[in-house]
């Protein structure tokens, strides 16, 4: 029951997955380092990057895991996915095959990592390289909203690492859902631990503490 404002810190592990060459590394570099390089270098295994956000009185540290596309559905992904709180699944709008692989990436992710409450991690779908084909999604007749709902995505964005389109917006969306999910889990834990005590001992320090908050 302490007064005043307390600054809190959060560390969230976020996976960036999808087929080889869809732009995962470029998205991370744009988001973290604010730059873009046209020189392509395939990621080997997994790379890491750290992004620090200041939201209200909270410091949020995002540990971004750049999972190589050739690791697709391999046994090592279970190790890479461990303790993740959120994910981006990326496809290239100019390569329909990379979109067709999205559901397999999502199924693989859901089968290998869950939150403490058993729910799937928040996942945002990124339709990358939209600067090269803004009309591709429309021409293919893909109903993205319906697709996301049916496959358990919390949202989707057309993105371009080259032109810096929707990178920050997509990340903010994912972080918002991660924080909401974490708060829901904390409230559930409080309910599970506090309720039995309140039933046997009416009042007490727990209820007065909650009132003061």
Automatic annotation (TrEMBL):
Biological processes, Gene Ontology terms: endosome to lysosome transport; phagosome-lysosome fusion
Membrane protein topology class: Lipid-anchor
Subcellular localization: Endomembrane system; Membrane
Keywords, alphabetical: GTP-binding, Lipoprotein, Membrane, Nucleotide-binding, Prenylation
Pfam families reported in the protein's UniProt record: Ras
MF term (GO), any: GTPase activity
CDD domains named in the record: Rab32_Rab38 (cd04107)
Record bears the keyword NAD: no
The keyword Signal is annotated on this UniProt entry: no
Role played: The small GTPases Rab are key regulators in vesicle trafficking.
Record family assignment: Belongs to the small GTPase superfamily. Rab family.
Protein name listed in UniProt: Ras-related protein Rab
Organism: Hippocampus comes (Tiger tail seahorse)
């Amino acid at each position: 029951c302490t007064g005043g404002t307390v600054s809190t810190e959060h560390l969230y592990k976020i996976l960036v997955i999808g087929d080889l060459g869809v732009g995962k590394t470029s998205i991370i570099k744009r988001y973290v380092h604010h730059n873009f390089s046209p020189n392509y270098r395939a990621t080997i295994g997994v790379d890491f990057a750290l992004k620090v956000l200041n939201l209200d009185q909270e410091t949020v540290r995002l540990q971004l895991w750049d999972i190589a596309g050739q690791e697709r559905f391999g046994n090592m992904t279970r190790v890479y996915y461990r303790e993740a709180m959120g994910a981006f699944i990326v496809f290239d709008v100019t390569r329909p095959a990379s979109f067709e692989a999205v559901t397999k990436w999502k199924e693989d992710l859901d089968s290998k990592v869950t939150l403490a409450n058993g729910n799937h991690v928040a996942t945002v779908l990124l339709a990358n390289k939209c600067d090269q084909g803004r009309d591709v999604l429309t021409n293919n007749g893909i109903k993205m909203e319906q697709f996301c709902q049916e496959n358990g995505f919390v949202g989707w964005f057309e993105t371009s690492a080259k032109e810096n389109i929707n990178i920050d917006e997509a990340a903010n969306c994912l972080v918002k859902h991660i924080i909401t999910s974490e708060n829901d889990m904390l409230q559930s834990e409080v309910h599970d631990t506090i309720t039995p005590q309140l039933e046997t001992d009416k009042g007490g320090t727990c209820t007065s503490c909650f009132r003061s908050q």
